[in-house]
From TrEMBL:
<keyword id="KW-1003">Cell membrane</keyword>
<feature type="domain" description="ABC transporter">
    <location>
        <begin position="2"/>
        <end position="222"/>
    </location>
</feature>
<dbReference type="InterPro" id="IPR015854">
    <property type="entry name" value="ABC_transpr_LolD-like"/>
</dbReference>
<keyword id="KW-1278">Translocase</keyword>
<keyword id="KW-0472">Membrane</keyword>
<dbReference type="InterPro" id="IPR003593">
    <property type="entry name" value="AAA+_ATPase"/>
</dbReference>
<dbReference type="GO" id="GO:0016887">
    <property type="term" value="F:ATP hydrolysis activity"/>
</dbReference>
<dbReference type="InterPro" id="IPR017911">
    <property type="entry name" value="MacB-like_ATP-bd"/>
</dbReference>
<comment type="similarity">
    <text>Belongs to the ABC transporter superfamily.</text>
</comment>
<dbReference type="GO" id="GO:0006865">
    <property type="term" value="P:amino acid transport"/>
</dbReference>
<dbReference type="InterPro" id="IPR027417">
    <property type="entry name" value="P-loop_NTPase"/>
</dbReference>
<dbReference type="Pfam" id="PF00005">
    <property type="entry name" value="ABC_tran"/>
</dbReference>
<dbReference type="GO" id="GO:0005886">
    <property type="term" value="C:plasma membrane"/>
</dbReference>
<protein>
    <recommendedName>
        <fullName>Cell division ATP-binding protein FtsE</fullName>
    </recommendedName>
</protein>
<keyword id="KW-0547">Nucleotide-binding</keyword>
<dbReference type="GO" id="GO:0005524">
    <property type="term" value="F:ATP binding"/>
</dbReference>
<dbReference type="InterPro" id="IPR003439">
    <property type="entry name" value="ABC_transporter-like_ATP-bd"/>
</dbReference>
Length: 222
């Protein structure tokens, strides 16, 4: 469960990047965060990951008020999330398998276990055959799917993806979305930002932002 209670964010006493946002998302939903560039989508995702702090309001993730976490606890929060953010690039000097193994190595998994789980994660995004390739040898769509494999290898309950289909053609964007959607059946909550409205009908819930305000919010009755 992800809950926002009257959350606002001001950067450096500038205008509001987000203003008085409230919503709650039950587990296992595929949520689209929609709205034009500058609407506050990245800011909202970064706040769930503890990368940015709200100026006011509360954010509760799986029962924990993350706005009250000490700085030292933020890395533990982040490890429980699958993050596919704009500024987290693959390491170009390591092959695909090594990139995907990294989050497991960091949390102390053995090399054998990390190898097996990373290969299973690559399988899930349909890129098992690229394990030995280097990121720069892959297309943009493949690189995004590798980033998804890296994000899910720790079995997160929540996946946050910031514009994962930007710069991709429709075919590749669909592959990226399908890779994300596959985790939903396992109870994983996916929150995906996009300014591209062509995919909205695939969501179970859509949150619209405009100039930092929540302007619309709907979810499937089913
Ligand atoms: P989106 O992801 O929808 O494009 P952002 O969350 O990136 O929107 O930005 C929302 C607003 O906050 C914009 O006006 C942007 O300029 C501002 N903003 C974002 N990040 C920063 C920052 N680090 N410092 C100052 N202003 C920022
Ligand atoms: P394995 O049990 O060998 O890890 P799985 O098919 O269960 O194989 O998982 C494949 C990959 O997908 C693994 O790397 C796993 O960490 C990842 N994964 C992430 N989230 C989930 C989830 N909720 N359920 C199953 N697998 C997940």
């Amino acid at each position: 469960m992800i809950e926002f209670e009257n959350v606002s964010k001001q950067y450096n006493r500038g205008g509001y990047a987000l203003q008085d946002i409230s919503f709650s998302i039950p587990d296992g939903e595929l949520v689209f965060l929609a709205g034009p560039s500058g609407a506050g989508k990245s800011t909202l995702l970064k706040m769930i990951a503890g990368i940015e702090k709200p100026s006011s309001g509360r954010i509760i993730v799986n029962g924990q008020d993350i706005t009250r976490l000490r700085a030292g606890s933020i890395p533990y929060l982040r490890r429980k999330l699958g993050l596919i953010l704009q500024d987290q690039h693959l390491l170009n000097d390591r092959n695909v398998l090594s990139n995907v193994m990294l989050p497991l190595i960091v949390t102390g998994a053995s090399a054998t276990e990390a190898d097996g789980r990373a290969r299973a994660a690559l399988e899930k995004v349909g890129l098992a055959d690229k394990a030995g390739a280097y990121p720069l040898e892959l297309s943009g769509g493949e690189q995004q799917r590798i980033a998804i494999a890296r994000a899910i290898v720790n079995r997160p309950k929540i996946i946050l993806a910031d514009e994962p289909t930007a710069f991709l053609d429709r075919d590749n964007a669909n592959k990226v979305l399908n890779a994300l959607k596959a985790f939903r059946s396992a109870g994983v909550t996916c929150l995906i930002s996009s300014h591209d409205e062509q995919f909205l009908d695939q969501a179970s819930r859509v949150i619209y932002l405009q100039q930092g305000r929540l302007t619309d919010h709907w979810h499937d009755a089913a």
